[in-house]
């Protein structure tokens, strides 16, 4: 959790410097309009992906399959949502990159591996099943 907080703080600092640089290059008004436009478009895209992901979760639950991948994808979409809605271009670029399916798969696999590792360290029993049991 600390690493994620540090990541967002670093992104925020880089965003400030980037916004100052771009504002000097193209002007404050165009920079402001660009930030607003990318935030609106990014917010719409994340909202759309979130709805599709929620439909996948519901479909998996209806079939009796654990929606493991969709849950991790939801976590990633929350992070992407924070990156694209906050003002700045760097966060938008990172957020858009995280919406690419192959990048998503890699990041989700990494997050899943990390969570599983932490659970094993704490002695949590992990039962793998593709079906819920009544």
UniProtKB/TrEMBL annotation:
InterPro entries cross-referenced by the UniProt entry? FxsA (IPR007313)
Which is a Gene Ontology cellular component entry for this protein? membrane
Signal peptide region = none
- Know the name of this protein? UPF0716 protein FxsA
């Amino acid at each position: 959790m600390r690493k994620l907080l540090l990541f967002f703080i670093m992104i925020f600092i880089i965003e400030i410097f980037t916004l100052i640089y771009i504002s000097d290059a193209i002007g404050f008004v165009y920079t402001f309009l660009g930030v607003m436009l990318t935030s609106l478009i990014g917010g719409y895209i994340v909202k759309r992906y979130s709805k599709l992901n929620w439909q996948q979760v519901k479909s998996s639950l209806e079939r009796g399959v654990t929606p493991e991948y969709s849950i991790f994808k939801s976590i990633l979409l929350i992070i992407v949502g924070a990156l694209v809605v906050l003002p700045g271009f760097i966060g938008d670029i990172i957020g858009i990159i995280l919406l690419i399916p192959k990048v998503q798969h890699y990041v989700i696999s990494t997050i899943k591996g990390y969570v599983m590792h932490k659970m094993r360290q704490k002695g949590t029993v992990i039962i793998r099943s593709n079906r819920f049991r009544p």
